[in-house]
């Protein structure tokens, strides 16, 4: 995301959509008080402790509105920042600074909140063999930003979208008729480069998925004791993932289970935003 080419290819259209949502014809308030060009500066200030993520997206919002905008960055992506810290000084057309403020902050606050929340869970898993994953439970049109923020916070990404991998959940299994049939059909259809993951809800399903040749078995909403027994049954024949309402409050129950991965939708759908503001705008 820090690479300008990657940013333009993957993110610009979503940033433009966000700006278009906020400015349908004009920024009426700004045009009232600033009808003509005036160079100005504004401070980016953190109002709580956390991990900063999304600086490249924050900058890009203003660049799309003013190609002369300049940034004096005081922090780097992924830094731990503290309440009251000056993170950047932005200089450019005051009209662009005013019109882009909310959109730029929305991205930065949301992404930094996700990175901070993710990091708090990653720390709880330190010392275990388990890797923390996100899910597809993301805000529409925000997935590229939210999954990136998870990585800044020290987490890892599960599949990006439906084209990215095979995951056979309960309804896929129902459509196929059984786990065995679903895995057979997946092996026949999907390229050999794609692993096949199967979601299971009980130990009988665990046995069937392992015997069918699943590459990854997701243990959904199982108790720690059930997961330990599932790992014994799988016996190294597949990677293991646990999922189901995993949050910062209950992640400790997963630490000693021994699964390879734990996935949590809460990383993206429940992380609180970080409080960040643009302050002290003035003409220069």
* Unreliable stretches: none
Number of domains: 2
Binned strand content: 15-25%
Q: What is the number of strand segments? A: 12
Give the overall pLDDT as a whole number: 95
CATH class of the largest domain: Alpha Beta
Helix content: 40-55%
- In which order are the strands of the major sheet placed? 6-11-10-9-8-7
**Assigned CATH architecture of the largest domain:** Alpha-Beta Barrel
| Category from helices, strands and their pairing | alpha/beta
CATH homolog superfamily of the largest domain: Aldolase class I
Instruction: Please count the helical segments.
Output: 11
Reported for the largest beta sheet, the result is: 6 strands, parallel
SSE string: HHHEEHEEEHEHEHHEHEHEEHE
Q: Distance N terminus to C terminus?
A: 31 Å
